[in-house]
Amino acid sequence: MAAPIKFGVGQSVLRKEDDALIRGKGRYTDDYAPQAALRCLMLRSPHAHAKYTIDASRARTLPGVALILTADDVKDLGNLPCLFNLETDPFTGPPYPILAKDEVRHVGDSIAFVVAETIDQARDAIEAIEVKWSPLPAVTGVVNAVKKGAPQVWPDKAGNVLFDVSIGDKAATEAAFAKAHAVAEINIVNPRVVASFMEARAAVCEYDAKRDHLTLTVGSQGSHRLRDILCQNVLNIPTEKMRVICPDVGGGFGTKLFPYREYALMAVAARQLKKAVKWAADRTEHFMGDAQGRDNVTTAKMALAEDGKFLAMDCDLMGDMGAYLSTFGPYIPHGGAGMLPGLYDIQAFHCRVRTIFTNSVPVDAYRGAGRPEAAYVIERLVDACARKLDMTPDAIRRKNFIQPKALPYKTATGKVYDSGDFAAHLKRAMEIGEWKEFPKRAKAAKKNGLIRGIGLASYVEICGVMGEETANVRLDPNGDVTVLIGTQSSGQGHQTAYAQIVAEQFGLPPERVHVRQGDTDEIATGLGTGGSASIPSGGVSVERATRELGQKLKEIAAQALEASAGDLELSDGVVRIAGTDRSMSFADLAKRGSADPSKLNGSATFASADGTYPNGTHLAEVEIDPATGIIKIVNYVIVDDFGKTLNPLLLAGQVHGGAMQGIGQALMEQVVYGATDGQLITATFMDYALPRAADGPDFVFETSNVPCTTNPLGVKGAGEAGAIGSCPAVVNAIVDGLWREYKIDHIDMPATPERVWIAVNEHHRRHSL
């Protein structure tokens, strides 16, 4: 039976989570303070590269100091693992120790962990630790790191290269370039950024000596993965010896997926002291200690036929790993390279991928994890192709889009796009954005001394390939339904989305569906949340588990109502004989003494082996003041294909938020290190710019869905899409305006007012000679 309109799939149900959060009743990790919990601080390196000796003897005698751990104290612990390797060219990464021993390799590298009765006593102990530094040459930025004679981050990694591999068919690509009518080429920088979530990382670790058992309370994106890595790879203890609890999480964006040094050190401290310990990062520690995102440099070329057809694409990509390999670090450039062909029919493709060590904070997944970088490269290159052949950006896209009749389509990198109508999304975005009327708007702006530009970005991403996710759906004694699942919301609205899936089957209002997450004792397995996989995998599991429970409830009710299960239907929290008024409530079913407890729950596991491929078009229109370089986004349109919309309200929030992150990267965000000393220059929000509400446009967003064929719900992942199309759309719009007025064909992200002003004035200088 169809669910009530206001509850079911496809409806804009208000977020269940919001009432408590808005009223200040949210419970985040830092809100939790066990009685007499000790406080922890990390001593971090002020140098990008240095040898050091440490003496903590005096600090250990200070009042209130309970424990100081240095590298020698944790030498029996395992290293933080990198979970990615190449099948064809396996590599061996350097160790990522829990505390750096003898040598540090980036500003913020950890050398000691202090535990004291108060945070002030911990700070005093940090100051009292004696460290003698012997600075070494440092290198930042991949271009500098691969230069001959550059300082070595790791002595056994020649040229600072972890791996140097090729993707695609080099011979076929070279042959196509040899026959090309023209070649377009562009050099692209994806700048380094930080996650900037509202809630900085924090954790509390408690130890039960009677059971020899640890409980770690931490805001993460997946309790089970975190527990498993810490226990199996670092602490060398059975997983049943640790419980991980995840309360409310104030944003993650990929960065809270990973195990961090503090969590392992807290486990050691809690176990050794037999007391609860608490650590909470300040914002500068977020910049110095949390994995960062993006940071790669790509040279991309396209071989063109005379009519504008793309013949081949060749790329050279260098991804910055930082000083150590984070959990998925090397996957980001390598996996992202597989999406470089975008939505286009490109028969020959080759990409050289190098991963490079630098004296900087490790780099890992950040909203989109390689796919935004790839989309930025291909969409900037497509506009360069249009300029090369004097074609319009929309015409060259339509010329080269993969057509619906060609789907499923296997790209030159082996990705299989199952569904979509890429030209239709482009057309609709241009209609909403009044593309044909743009010249009039540009002319009016010019009268006011301003320059207008308009840009397109047609994107595709792969997501939903995290693996299996299991859901358990049970009937509670009061007739409510509880969903237990291993995904982890950090603001996405999972409690609401999963409740709608249950409502679709049972007709229960969302307040009668309770979602349990983030507790390894209560929930048996879970992959956590990342890669926009929660609904394509977890949502399917919830739907199937709900169906299983529904069938079991029909079987129980059939006995009580003396009817056939096939004649029963579920609605409004009751099981009813179709066409009659005879029914049993869920609560009565739960209380029946004859009901087998195993029949009061359903369980299902699902993994989308082929993933999903959300896609769409972003259109951005900007206004540039050439006198100041200030850019204003005056029009922004998004047309997305997510297969099927579960909740339009939640979806719009995800897309708007992602687009704002992309806009931030396009216009202002960048982590900056000193070129010669490796010092972190952007260590606070005083130095690292973030977009404010006033920097965002009034988004016009709509969906044009083509159902996905790789999962039963027909959905495509939506959590990262906004961050993928936005960067190239905004920068293409800026370059469009600069090209129309000054024939300036390139600007790097972030396109700050200073960079725009310099580009304009350099043009004036050259033309005044």
From TrEMBL:
| Keyword Electron transport (UniProt) | no
| Pfam families given in the database record | Ald_Xan_dh_C, MoCoBD_1, MoCoBD_2
Question: SMART domains, alphabetically?
Answer: Ald_Xan_dh_C
Extract the GO molecular function terms from the UniProt entry.
iron ion binding; oxidoreductase activity
Record key words, sorted:
Molybdenum, Oxidoreductase
Which InterPro entries does the record cross-reference, listed alphabetically?
Ald_Oxase/Xan_DH_a/b, Ald_Oxase/Xan_DH_a/b_sf, Ald_Oxase/xanthine_DH-like, AldOxase/xan_DH_MoCoBD1, AldOxase/xan_DH_MoCoBD2, AldOxase/xan_DH_Mopterin-bd_sf
> PANTHER family in the record, alphabetically?
ALDEHYDE OXIDASE 1-RELATED, XANTHINE DEHYDROGENASE
In Swiss-Prot or TrEMBL terms, this protein is called: Xanthine dehydrogenase family protein molybdopterin-binding subunit
